[in-house]
Specification:
The protein has 143 residues and is an alpha/beta fold. Helices cover 24% and strands 27% of the residues. It has four helices and seven strands; from the N terminus they run βαβαββααβββ. The chain has helices at 8-21, 38-48, 85-89, 92-96, and strands at residues 2-5, 27-31, 63-66, 73-77, 101-105, 118-125, 134-141. Strands 1-7-6-2-5-4-3 form a seven-stranded mixed sheet. Helix 1 packs across helix 2. The radius of gyration is 14 Å and the shape is globular. It starts with a strand and ends with a strand. The structure holds adenosine-5'-diphosphate and magnesium ion (MG). Magnesium ion (MG) is lined by residues 38-39, 57, 77, 105.
């Protein structure tokens, strides 16, 4: 499925819809360049999960855990990962194979340890369509 958005608010809203529909154990990966809207999308998902707390980029912690929403929410940003072994240290498998919802920014860096089934969200710019344009591609992997 491909969705085009023309403002940050629209991208947030797409995330929110996904958060509203998310089920225990769902894993989402987010692919796209720096500044494309991965964290903004994630903030929408958190809103959809009824999380009130502010969501920031967990750049220095790899994973940020939010427990107060409709489902536990595990927000990963693996941009600074040196080796996939670092994911073991943060308890990656307990989260990803657990009963919450996982969102993994820069998941292409840990491709070899992604679960068999997940939803891949790719966000891309196209400057010919304006600075606020984003193309969001949502694909079911391994389904
Ligand atoms: P990332 O996490 O991918 O590095 P962020 O979500 O932190 O990116 O930042 C995205 C930036 O792009 C924000 O400043 C946001 O306002 C801006 N932006 C402009 N148009 C859009 C759009 N259509 N969708 C998402 N973000 C947009
Ligand atoms: Mg980010």
């Amino acid at each position: 499925m491909i969705i085009e958005t023309f403002s940050p608010e629209e991208t947030f809203r797409i995330g929110e819809e996904i958060g509203q529909k998310a089920c225990p154990g769902d894993v989402y990966t987010l692919i796209g360049d720096l500044g494309v809207g991965k964290t903004l999308f994630t903030q929408g998902v958190a809103k959809g999960l009824e999380i009130e707390e502010a969501i920031s980029s967990p750049t220095f912690t790899i994973v940020q855990v939010y427990e107060e929403g409709r489902l536990p929410f595990y927000h990963f940003d693996v941009y600074r990962i040196g080796d996939v072994d670092e994911m073991d240290e943060v308890g990656y498998e307990d989260y990803v194979y657990g009963d919450g919802v996982s969102m993994i920014e820069w998941a292409d860096l840990i491709e070899e340890i992604l679960p068999e089934k997940y939803t891949r969200v790719t966000i891309e710019k196209d400057l010919s369509k304006g600075v606020d344009y984003r193309r969001i591609t949502i694909e079911e992997i391994g389904a």
